[in-house]
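Supplementary notes for students who missed Thursday's class. We covered one full example, reproduced here. Read the sequence, then the structure, then the short commentary at the end.
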Amino acid sequence: MCGRFITCNQAAIEREFSVIQPLWTFEASYNVAPTQSVPVIRIQDGQRTGTLMRWGLVPWFAKGIPTNYSTINATIEKVEQGAAWRGPWSRAQRCIMPAAAFYEWHMGEDGKKNPYLIKLADQNLFGFAALWDRSIKPDGTVIESCALVTMPGNELMRRIHNTGAHPFRMPALLAKEDREQWLTGTLIEAKAALKQYPQDCMVAYQVSSRVNSPRNNDAALINPAERTTANDQKQMSLIQ
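Structure (token representation):
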């Protein structure tokens, strides 16, 4: 699963994703965490629109109340049939969650979980393929929320992401030429846009465990970790 990522400043995202209708205001973040409001791009009134949504999809049938199970990631295997995903999928409620990088955790031979930062070599800013939904509380409050799509990991991501309830996976990272297809294509075309990103276009390195806490949110989080022990060096060699 993908549980943390980085967003850059609003103006850069609007330029990169050709946002025509910006309905958001947000700051860059080095440690975006679940349940926070995140920027997303969707088609609204025929235009690429930027808005903020809760990260962690609240299905329309939940009446605005978050589920008791995690909905930050929608697995590609269940987008068409899963209870939380089939509605947004069938209604073509697709969006893009823009990011500059994301984090995953690797369990070493010593049983310690070490965070890694992953970024793309061919896109300074990229987009997670995501679904969104709208749910209404009994008092009429509207909750719009999203979940990014995940899939089996490529070789690099399988080596890094070897821990958690759903190991060996990666987020669906959109090629730049597939963004429009994901946002406006048919269901068949949208499904075809969900592909494993080439591992030779990805860069990964270990970072500080400070990223484990969402309270830490500063530029130092993206600095490579100081690996001083022989075991640290051995674990890094397994990833590279």
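Commentary. The chain has one domain: 4-239. The longest helix spans residues 230-239. If anything here is unclear, bring it to office hours.
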